[in-house]
Amino acid sequence: MLMYKSRTILFLLGFCVCQYAFAEISLEELMEEFSKTTHANAKFTERKQLTLLTAPLILEGTLSYHAPDYLKKVVNKPSPSLFEISGETLYIETATEKQTLHLDSHPLIRAFAESYRATLSGDSKTLMQYFDADLSGTLDNWTLNLSPKDEYVRTRIRTIQMTGSGALIQSAKTVELSGNTTFMKITADND
Amino acid sequence: MTRPLLLLFFWVLLIIAGIIYLRGTVSITSDLTQFLPRGATQEQKLAVSLARTGPASRLIIIALGNSPAEDLAITSRRMVTLLEKDGLFSHVSNGGAIAPDKLEIIFRYRYLLDPGINAMAFSEQSLHHEFQQRLVELGSALPLTDIEYLQADPIASFRKIITSWRPDQQQNSIDGVWFTPDGQRALIVAITKSSGFDPQAQEQAIHAIHAAFSKSDAADGTEILLSGTPVFAHNSRNTIRSDLKVLSITAGLLVTLFLLMAYRSPYLLILSGMPVVTGLLAGAVITSVLFGNIHGITLIFGITLLGVAIDYPIHLFSHMTTSRTPLQSMLHIWPTLRLGVITTCIGYLAFARQDFNGLAQLGAFTITGLLTAAAISRWFLPSLIISAKMPGTRRDLISGLKSFIPFSRYAARFILIIATVTLVLLLSISPPEWETDLSALSPLTAKERQLNNTLRNAIGTPDASQLIVMNGADPETVLRTSEEITDKLQQAVELGLITGFDTPTRYLPSMATQKLRQASLPDSRIARQMVISAMQGLPYKQDAFNPFIEALTESKNLPPLTLDDMEDTLIGSKVQTLLMNTGQEWQAIILLSGIDSRGEFQKWWSRQQFKDIYLLDLKEASTELLTDFRNSTLERVLLGILLIVALLSVGLRSLKRAFRILFPVILAAGLVAALLGGIGERLSLFHLIALLLTVGIGIDYSLFFHRPGKRDEDISNTTHALSVCALSTVTVFGILATSPIPVLHAIGLTASLGATLCFFLASAMAGAGKSMP
C-alpha cells in the first residue's frame, strides 16, 4: 500500500518536472495555441504517389493563411496553378480554367480545406464537425490523425495525418482509399 | 297563384337552370393570347403560340430578401434541394454546381455528345496531347482529381461537355448562389414542367415554391418574391377575382343606394336587378355554347353591362305616372328604348368575325345580354309592378341635377362650342398615342413588370425574344435542321453579328450526328494500340487507361440517345424547353443572344435562304400583331358606329334628327379619346371597346333627351330617368377606373368619362335645339 503510494508520488513528481517539455498535449491546448496565429506563410513540397503513375509527382509552392477563414495554395512547379478558399467560396485557377465554386457542393474539397483551415484557426468545433480527431505527442512534436465523418468523403479519403510543432504544421499526409497518397512537407516562410 | 307570382317563379327556375348549366360546363380562360387573333403571318402565329407555350411561359424567378446574404444563400440552397425533389419542375437552379449523380447518362454518352469527337480525336498525337494535359492537372493545386473519371475519360470529353453547358454570362453570386448585383436578394430560377397555359398545374407549382420556402427554415423576416409569366397569370387571376368582387360589391351597393333614394322602394330595387342578372346569365350561357369557353376579359367586360342594362328598368320606373299603368308607361317609352337597344346591339355586330375569337365573344356576350335585359324589362317587369308607389314626388339628390338640366339655350350652345373647341385643341396639341407594348395589356401592374425586368437582368436569362423556330414531323428532322443552322450561326458569331446562341442540339445531337461520332470511334484493338503508343514518354502505368478502351467499345454499341432517355434528367428538361411537341408537329427553337445590329443580322439571315425556318423577334412580332389587332378593332368600332348611324337614320326616318342624336355622342367619344391622350393614357384596344360601349350608352341618353315630350311631367320624368342612369353608370365605371389592373382601369376610365360627357352634351344638344324649328 505504502509502496504503491510512494510510486504514485514519484510519478506525479516526475510528471510535474517534465510537464512542460514532455507532457501529452490535448486537442484543446493545441487549438488554443493555434488560435493565437492570425496569419501564416509557408513553403511546401508535395509528393503525390498515384496508383495510375509509375513515378510520383513532385509539386512545389507556397501556402498562406489569414485568420479566420482564408487559405491559399499556390503551385509553382511543375506548372503554375492556384487554389483559394475564402469563407464558403472556392476559387480555382489552372492553365486551362478559372472557376468559382461553393464549398457545399464539393464535400471532398471541403474536407481538405477544413483539415487545414480549422486547425490553423484553432476552431476545434468545425474540425470535430468534419473529422474524428486523434492527437498524440507533445506541444513540440504532435501528430494529429483526422478521419473524415461525412459518408461520401469516407468512400474517398481514409485519413489525413498532420504533424507539427507548436502552432506550426510541418507535414500533412493524405491516404485515399484508392491507394493514392499525398505527402506535403511544409516549412515556415517568414519573409 | 297570381300571374306575377307565377312569372317570378318561372324566372327563378330559369336563373337556377342557367347557373347550374354554367357551373357544370363553363371554363374561364385568362390567357390574353387566346383573346388575340391567331395572327395573319406565320411569324405572328408562331409568336402567339410561343407566348403561350414557349420557354418564357414556364419560367419563375424566386427572389429571397430581407435577411443577411449568408442566411439567404443557405435558404436558397435548401429550397433548390426541396424543389428538385418535388417533380413539378423541369429545372431548378441557383447557380450552384450540377450534382454529379444527375449526370450519369451524360457520362455514359460522352463520346456521342462531345462535338469534338471525330476520327482525329483518337490519333496518337491528339491522345498524347490529352494524356499530357491530364498529367499537368494531376500536378495542380487541386487536392484531388477524380481518378475514376480520369481513367475512363482521359480525353476529358465529359468535362468539356459540362463546361460547354455553363451559361455564358457570369452572374453575380455570393457563397456560390446567384444574387442581384446589389447583394440584397438571392435568386433561384425554376422552370415548370407544365406548359404556361395550364393554369392549374402552374398554380400547383407556385404552391410548391411557397411550401418549399416555409420548409426551408429561413431566417426570421426573410421575404420571398416570385416573378415570371406563370406567377403573373396566377396573380392576375387572383387580383381580377378579388378586385372584381370588391369593385362589384362597392358599385352594387352605391347603385342600390341611388335607386333606393330615387324610388324609395325596395321592391322596385329588386325588380331593377332582374334584367341585369338575366342578361348576364344569358350572355354567359350563349357565349359558352357558341365558343366552348368564356374568356376572362369577356366576363369582366360583360359584367360592365351592369352599367348599361340597369338603365332599362330605370327608364321604366322614372316614366311611371299615376295616370298610366306600368305596362302603358313601358309602351310609352318602348319605341325610344327599343331604338337605343337595337342601335347598341348593331354596333357590336361589327365584332362578329371568325378570326377574332376575343372580339366575337365580346360581341356575342353583349348582344345577348342587352337583348335579354331589354326583353325582360319590356315583357316581364311591367306585370310585376303591382303595388309600387308611383315616383311622383321625388325630392332627392337627383333634383339637384335636375335644377340645371335641361340647360338654357345659351348655356347649351356655349357648352357645345366649348366641347368642340376643346376637342380640336386637345387633338392638335397632344393627340392620343397607341399602346404598342403587348405586356401593357396583360393585367399586370407597372410595379410587377418592373420587378420582373430587374430580376431577369440580374439572372441573365436570355431575353428569349430573339429566336429561330423550325418545325418538322419528328424530333430527328428538326434536330437535323437545327444542326444545319448551327453551322451557319457559328459563322455569324465569327462575323460578330451575334455573340452566341443556344440550340437543342447542344444538349441532344441528332441521331445521325451521334451515329457519325460512333463510326469515328476506334474499335478496341486499334484503340489499345493508339493508347499504348500515345502513352510513350509519359509516366502512366501500362493498364492506366483500360477503362477508357472499354468505354470506347461500349460507346460504339450504344443506341443513340433520344429525348425519352433524357426524360427526368436535368439536361433533358433543358432540351424540352427548346424542343417540343406542338400537337401535330415537333418544334425546335434556337435562342439568339447579343445581336449587335438587328438589321445587319437580318440581312445576313435572308442571304442564307433557309426555307420554312423563321427568324422571330417576339417583341416585334407581338407589337405588330397588337397593332394589326388594334387597327382591326378600330376598323370594327368605326364600322359599328357607321351601322349605328345607318340604323338611326332609318329608325328616325330623318338624317337631321339622326345627326342631332349622334352629334353629342360622337363629340363625347372624341373628347374621351382626346382627354385620355391628354392625361397620358396610351390607348389600347380595351379603350376602343369601351368607347363603343360609351357610344351605345350615349345614344340611349341622346334618344331620351330628344324624345318629343308633350307634357312637362314627361320631360321631368325623362330627366329624372337619365339622371339616375348616368349617376349609376358613372358610379359603376368610376369604381372600375380605380383598379390598378389595366383592363379594368381602361374600361372604367373610358366609360365613366364617356357616360358623363354623353349625358351633359346630349342634354346640351337637346337644350340648344329647343327653339329650333
In short:
The complex is a heterodimer of chains A (191) and B (773). By secondary structure, chain A is of the alpha+beta class.
Describe this structure in words.
Chain A is an alpha+beta fold and about 190 residues long. Chain A has a single domain, classed as outer membrane lipoprotein receptor (LolB), chain A. Chain A has five helices and eleven strands. With about 775 residues, chain B is of the alpha+beta class. Chain B has a domain at about 1-30 and about 265-385: Multidrug efflux transporter AcrB transmembrane fold (Up-down Bundle). Chain B is about 65% helix and about 10% strand. In chain B, the strands form five sheets. In chain B, strands 10, 11, 12, 13 and 14 form a five-stranded antiparallel sheet that branches. A four-stranded antiparallel sheet of chain B has the order 3-6-2-7, with helices on both faces. Chain B starts with a helix and ends in a 5-residue tail after the last helix. Classes of the chains: A alpha+beta (about 190), B alpha+beta (about 775). The interface between A and B is large, with 42 and 29 residues.
